[in-house]
Amino acid sequence: MMERNLWLLVIARFFGEFASYIFDVGVLIYLYSETESMAVVSGFFLTQILPALFTMFFGKYIDQYRKNRIVCLLNISKVICMSLFLLNKQFYTILIINFVLSWIGTVENNTINAMMTDVFSSNKLIQVGSILSFLSSFSMIVAPMVAAYLAKYFSININIWFCIVCFGITALAYSLVNIQLQVINSGEEKICQKFINLNKKIKWIISFWSIFMFCIGIAAPLEIKMIEDVLGMDGSYYGVGNTVEGIGMLLASGVILKIVKKIDEKYIVGIGLFTAGLSYLFIAFSFRIFAYYIGAILVGITAVLCPLGFRSSIQLYGEKANMGQIFSTSRFVVLIARALGTFCVGQLVLKCNIRIIYIIIGIILISVAFVYQRIKEKFI
Fold it and tell me: Quick one: which of 86, 241, 314, 349 has the most CB atoms within 10 Å?
């Protein structure tokens, strides 16, 4: 049964991630080519992050209902949103649809993370997480290249049709997952108590995750500006950059799978934070696109290590019956941190050189990595 569920999750994760990357890269290239505005790019990222404000309220529902059915319905909703996108491509319509899709995606991620503890035993969580990250990495390598190619030679409609098909397959795969271990929590908990009632270890994990996401919130919108305005390359290289990040993710996932029985989730986080800081220092000092891609590979490695370490820690230390609420709360906090970073980036690029911004982010993350390693045994 575990093998069957794992294969279904592999199929669902691959096609779901594939569609998400195609949408994000394709639409971002489309928006920037039409407007050439960093404000528009920041708005696109903000509409992906702000839905966290509205997802915290759904944690109790995740714990009360069959999680695979919730995820199936969410992916069907994505198909509907994509169909609406085909009918209207005005700038504000794109942002509204992106907001709704991001809300759906946030609830979906919370549900999937909580569902892992219902489908797999605790000693398999890091291994399964590594396998799914490996598939996400492969998807990230292929999808941005496809999105960049489609953006360059075809209309945005082809991009959207790809997404519709992929989300449909994802919905079907999740509907077939068999959950036998789910603990149903019928109780309710006030929103203001959720973070307070988390245990000390969970609080520290969320705090470090928030710092990481704040820095990501600043760095992510800068990528396309760095490529086009600083390095002087065509916008399609942004899609190639995402593919290179996928290679880094693939490498990191493969290494984790090899040593999964020998490594603690705490070390995964520390290494990930250090790699994140190093990646942005590489990008800051890149003067050719290939040097930039070295930093992008390190970003990809970070994109596996940090989320995997943080999620696995929460799954191990959190209460199983409240896992949906715990992930909704943590997702709320870390995405608000990312939203703050994204909100700041518009002003930062007006006052600071983009390379200086990357250097500051790199120094912060490396410092946080050392602090995390020093206190992890005592508090985490």
Answer: 241
Q: Map out the domains of the chain as residue ranges.
A: 2-379
Each residue of 246-295: pLDDT tens digit?
Answer: 788 878 877 776 665 556 666 788 888 999 999 999 888 988 888 888 88
For the ranges 57-71, 142-156, 263-277, the one whose mean pLDDT is highest = 263-277
369-372: long-range contacts at Cβ-Cβ below 8 A with a sequence spacing of 24 or more?
Answer: 369/270, 369/271, 369/273, 369/274, 369/276, 369/277, 370/274, 372/208, 372/269, 372/270, 372/273
CATH architecture of 2-379: Up-down Bundle (1.20)
How far is 283 from 154, CA to CA, in rounded Å? Answer: 30
Tokens of 222: 């800068």
90-109 pLDDT tens trace: 777 888 888 888 888 888 88
